[in-house]
């Protein structure tokens, strides 16, 4: 399990965690804030992570968090 935090391209900060599921999948959950106020929560799954180094897994999770938040309809 790992922790992740960052800022999305549209100005929201997030904090979350991720953990291996099975068959190379990584499940993640993130809480978003805007100017310190709660803005929402999302969860997702990144596939194809079997045998991937931890740094690359964290980067893939961050990319998925960004796209899930900014591309949400």
UniProtKB/TrEMBL annotation:
Q: Where is this region: Disordered?
A: 1-20
Compositional bias, Polar residues, is annotated for 1-12
Which domain of life does this protein belong to? Answer: Bacteria
The UniProt keywords, alphabetically, are: Receptor
Per its record, how is this protein called by name?
TonB-dependent receptor
Q: What is the lineage of its organism?
A: Bacteria, Pseudomonadati, Pseudomonadota, Gammaproteobacteria, Lysobacterales
């Amino acid at each position: 399990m790992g922790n992740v935090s960052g800022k999305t391209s549209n100005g929201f900060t997030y904090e979350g965690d991720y953990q291996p599921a099975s068959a190379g999948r990584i499940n993640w959950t993130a809480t978003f804030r805007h100017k310190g106020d709660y803005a929402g929560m999302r969860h997702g799954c990144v596939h194809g992570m079997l045998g991937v180094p931890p740094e690359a897994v964290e980067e893939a999770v961050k990319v998925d968090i960004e796209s899930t938040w900014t591309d949400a309809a």
